[in-house]
Each structure stands twice: as structure tokens, then as C-alpha cells.
Amino acid sequence: MLVLSSRDIESVISYEEMIEAIERAYVIYEEGKYYMPDRFHVDYKNKTLLYMPCFLDDVFGTKILTVFPENVEKKIPSLDGLMLLNDFETGKPTCLMDGKILTALRTGAVGGVGIKYTTPEDVKTVGLIGAGVQGFYQVLYACKVRNFKKVYIFDEYVKDLTDFVDRLRKVIPTDVEIIICKSSEDLVRRSDVVITATTATEPTMPNSTELLRGKHFIGIGSYKPTMREYPDALSSLVEDVYIDADIALEETGDLIQPIAAGLLKNSQVKRISKLIASGGEIKDLEHKTTFFKTVGIAIFDIVAANAIYKKAVEAEVGYLLD
Amino acid sequence: MLVLSSRDIESVISYEEMIEAIERAYVIYEEGKYYMPDRFHVDYKNKTLLYMPCFLDDVFGTKILTVFPENVEKKIPSLDGLMLLNDFETGKPTCLMDGKILTALRTGAVGGVGIKYTTPEDVKTVGLIGAGVQGFYQVLYACKVRNFKKVYIFDEYVKDLTDFVDRLRKVIPTDVEIIICKSSEDLVRRSDVVITATTATEPTMPNSTELLRGKHFIGIGSYKPTMREYPDALSSLVEDVYIDADIALEETGDLIQPIAAGLLKNSQVKRISKLIASGGEIKDLEHKTTFFKTVGIAIFDIVAANAIYKKAVEAEVGYLLD
After folding, report:
1. Nearest neighbour of B40 by CB, restricted to A35, A51, A84
2. How far apart are CA A201 and CA B277, in angstroms?
3. What is the 3 state secondary structure string of B2-56?
4. How large is the C-alpha radius of gyration of chain A?
5. Cellular component per GO (chains A, B) (predicted)?
6. What does the alpha-carbon distance between residue A55 and residue A53 come to, in Å, rounded to a whole number?
7. pLDDT tens for each residue of B204-258
8. What are the residue ranges spanned by the domains of chain A?
9. B56 to chain A: nearest residue by CA?
10. At the fourth CATH level, which superfamily is domain A2-102+299-320?
């Protein structure tokens, strides 16, 4: 079994390959060529252990995550975990890799693919609300799929973003300017594309159609019905909402709540995978307000992890156990 | 996270420490100081993926197993897997180790502890029915807890046991004689203690009270209601059956079938953990026919794995990921 650290992972896979992996995952999802059982979860003393298995045609595996909300007080990420790949024919574990960086990279790539398909090619400014680990990789991938000139950042809780900005500067093109915003309203006003990557349970921006009109929104947080990043105003502006998987309709408050309130119709919610698998595109993007919402599915993990594993074998990177 | 190969595991933990770990696990089980959810399993195209989580007071973890029955045709073990340990306070993965050798060692130790508590101290001969991976470690641990002078071996399917015997000779005391038997009847007749480690669905020995009387039986196989290693005659000879966990009453055909047939009473089935936790012993062992039956529980895995992990940290053995 090959064991890959976060550094190993980042050293073998390019951002472009990660984006390709996610596009491939969408085609597999659209074609139904997978078996993805419901997540298993164990809850014990405010600790959650999650097992997310997925079978493809030629590989299967499990992402194993721990969710410890109390870690936040200890300044430790609440999420930790591993990704395990198994040989499809024998079950033998073939690869084990850091699950935190895999999750961050694949979620970054999911956001990037979202931008690629739901925003015009000539967008120049991107805003990030929520400067955490996920947000970091969101900006990184955003800058891979579009030639952004300015990155705006706002975080309601982290007041000193120096370290975040310093790290970001090292990985995005040198000509991109990074600007800290004093409010989410300011950020949304100045950004063509807005990415939200928070754990908010209330909208992260003002409920104003005037403010939101013509912008392109990428929703990364809100993976529970009680979580929400977007105000009602967004529902009245969008023609359709693009989602990464049907399960989003059961998981995110950003769909469940406006649908329950009658502000959004089920028929307006569309799978981005259909667009990707058919090679289609959204027409007249530059005149539309768009919203791409991802909740994440195990297919992303397994396809991305398998791509990383193959690259690591090729590059002879990692630690071979036994 | 520390990654331990099968060699790492065997190099850091002694048989005595493994036996102590199992005895500690029994005390934890008897005192109820654990949380052990039901196993999760995913079945897909005749492949099974099992997650066996367990929480103790200071550590938690999961054994992840694959069961691929078709592997047998390919001469590959049908079982493979890994054991993951997590930090109790943060959820962080702390250790990952080979699950095959962990399972073999802890099952060996469970058998050894069974022998320690359910057989007289002066037994001289042990017989093994089923010369597979589990059987190998059963004999190894048996020879740690009793001064056996002769080991008898019988396997209905493996006709050439040369390799098995050669490997065994290297790990058991040099004065122990190893003898291959032509039948299970012959083996039982010559053995004071009989260990069965098969995947049999029919009894592995003749249904004869005369043959079985006064012997001490250790049942390792039969982990499903349809599996059975012992004939009805055994039920009529034993005063009590000792089990490793209450779940045995729902899992093994070696209890379910004789109880259903009215040959064994529920009240005759006792937890060995009660004996171990209370420091008690079975009286008049040398005049009794005894039966210890194990089905295995996740507490064994987590306690044994944690002991191995601590020893590996101490000895600075293993590969440190990130």
C-alpha cells in the first residue's frame, strides 16, 4: 500500500489535473457508473466519525472523516481524516492519503469547475467570504480557471488575515492584487464572482437584489439544512441554480429554505454534471445572475484520489508499506 | 500519523503483551467502559466492505476490512484490511496499521486467553483443525500459555502442510513435536486441547461423546449462524460454554444451532470476561469437558492496536506521515 502525505499529494498533482478529475467525476455521476451508499456516521460525546464509501468501475474506497466541533476552541481544524483506496478485484488496500488536503484540493477544483461553467470568461474580480482552509483553495483554483486581477477577502471572525494573504500570494499569479474588505457588502459590490466558504447559519451578505444582481455566486459552505450563506434576494435574481449532485436538495439550507419559502422552484435546480457531460453551456452568462451550489459527493473524492494515486506511482512518490 | 507495517507490528509487541491486552479488553468489556456501534457493511458485486468502530475512554478507532470470497480462487486471502486509531480529544488520526496481522495476533491472543482460563495447567497436547493464517497464530499463542509437548494438525483441504509446519517450527519452542494427522478423529483422540479454525458449515469432527469427553475445545471459526465446527455431542458433555462476548449468541452456529435444538440452554452460556474481571476460575477443570467460543469484537482490536501503537512510539518504529 502506498502512503501519501499532504506534501506528496501536492507535489504530484497539478491544478489542471485536479480540475480534469472533477470533470471526469461529473461525467461518471451523470452516466450513473458508480455505487455510492449513504454515508455512515457514528456520533459519540459530541464527536462524529464519518465513513464515505464509493465504488467506481475500476476502483473503490472510503473517505474517513472525524468532525470534532470543539477543536475550534483549541485552534485545531474541526475536520480531519484519511482517504483509502482499494483494488477493485482483490479488495487489497492500494493507497492511503491525507484526507484534509484531498478534501481541500477537490473542493477547490469543484469550485473552479463551477466558475468555469457558470461565469463569463472575462470576469476580472473575485471575492471570498470565509478565509479558512477551504476558502484558500477556492481562490487558488478560481485563479486557475479565470484571469482574475483582484481578489477581495472578508472574514467576519478572523480579523488578522496577514498570514492567509501571505500564503495566498505565494500560489496565485503575481499580478493579482489581494484586498481585504471591511464588510461582505463592500466585497460583493466590488466582485464579479463571489465565493462563500463559511459555516454560517444566516446569510453572509445583505438581502439586496440591487447588490446581488449580475454577480456570479459559488456556494461552498452550507452542507446542512440549518446552514445558509445566501439571502432570499438571490432566489429572485437567478434563472436556475446549478448543483453538483441531487443530494444538495436534501442537504443544504441554501436550497431547502428558499424552496420551502416558495422563492425557488425545484424545476429551477439543475445538475451541472448534465451541462459538463453534454458539452453544453449556459447562454448569455454576462447578463445573468448565477448561483452554483456544491455539497460534495464521495465520487469527487474517489476520482480525485485515484488520479493522485496514479500520478504518485508514476513519480515514485510516497511511502510503500510492506 | 504513525504507519505500521505487519513487520513493524510483530517487531514491537510481545506475545505476552498481546495476551495482557486481550485480558485488559475483557475487563473493559465486562465493566461496560466502551461504545461499540454495530458494524457497518457495504455489499457490492459479491464484495464486502466492513467498518468496525469502537470508542474507549481514551482512544477510538476503526478496523476496515474487505471480504472478497472470490480471492480464494486466486490464492489471495479473502480478508484484507487496516486498523485506524484516532486521538480521543481531537479526532486526529494517530496510527494506521496492517489489519491482517493485527487480526491474526489478537485472535491468537484471544485463543490463548481462552486456553489459559478453560484448560488445566498441565495439558500436554494440542490439536489444530484448519491450518490457515488464524490457525497458525492459534498454535503460536497456545504454546505461550501452556507447555505443550505435541502439536497435532489436520486440514481437510490443504494436503501439503510442509510450509505451514516449517513456519510454525520457527516460532514455537524447539522441543515441541509437530505431527500431521490423517483425520480429525485421530487428532481429537490424541489431543488434550483442540482448536478449530475453519470456515466449516458442518461439524469438523465425529459426533461421538466417547471421543470428545474430557477434552478442551477452542472454537475460532463459525462467526455466522450457518457456520458450525462442533457436533451435537459436545453440548451434552459441557457444563458451561464460555464465550468472548454476548453477541456470540446471535452470530455463531455453534451456539445458535444446539440452543435451537434444545441441546444447550442459554443459562449454560457464560462470558469469560466475568471470570477474568473477577479473578475467578473454573473449578475441577481436569475432570471436565470445556468449550470456549470466540466470535471477536472490536474492543479486542482497539485495545490491541493501542498497545501496539504505544510500543511502536516508544521503540521509534514505523513511518511518520507528515
Report:
1. A51
2. 49
3. EEECHHHHHHHCCHHHHHHHHHHHHHHHHHCCCECCCCEEEEECCEEEEEEEEEC
4. 19
5. cytoplasm
6. 7
7. 999 999 999 999 999 999 999 999 999 999 999 999 999 999 999 999 999 999 9
8. 2-102+299-320, 120-295
9. A44
10. ornithine cyclodeaminase, domain 1 (3.30.1780.10)
The ranges of chain B with pLDDT < 70 are none
* 8 Å CB contact of B86 and A49: yes
Residue B30 neighbours by CB distance under 10 Å: 16
Question: Looking at domain A120-295, which CATH architecture does it have?
Answer: 3-Layer(aba) Sandwich (3.40)
Q: Are B2-102+299-320 and B120-296 the same fold in CATH?
A: no
Whether residue B80 and residue A92 make contact (CB cut-off 8 A), yes or no, is yes
CB-CB under 8 Å, B90 with A76: yes
Name the class of domain B120-296. alpha beta
Using CB atoms, pick whichever of B5, B42, B93 lies closest to residue A53: B42
Q: Do B5 and A81 touch (CB under 8 A)?
A: no
Yes or no: say if A290 and A217 are a contact pair by the CB < 8 Å rule. Answer: yes
Predicted local distance difference test score (pLDDT) of residue A54 = 97
Integer Cα distance of A126 and A195 in angstroms = 7
Grid cell of A125 as nine digits: 474580480
Q: CA triplet A42, A45, A48: central angle to 5 degrees?
A: 35
Distance CA B177, CA B205 (A): 23
Among A68, A98, A322, the residue with its CB nearest the CB of B322 is A98
**Interface list for chain A against chain B, based on CB atoms closer than 8 Å:** 1, 3, 5-7, 35, 37, 40, 42, 44-45, 47, 49, 51, 53, 55, 60, 62, 64, 66-68, 71, 74, 76, 80-82, 84, 86, 89-93, 96, 98, 319, 321-322
Query: Is residue B41 classed exposed, middle or buried when 0-12, 13-18 and 19+ CB atoms within 10 A define those classes?
Result: middle
Contacts of B89 in chain A (CB under 8 A): 68
pLDDT in tens, A24-67: 999 999 999 999 998 898 999 888 899 999 999 999 999 999 98
Average pLDDT over residues A59-79: 90
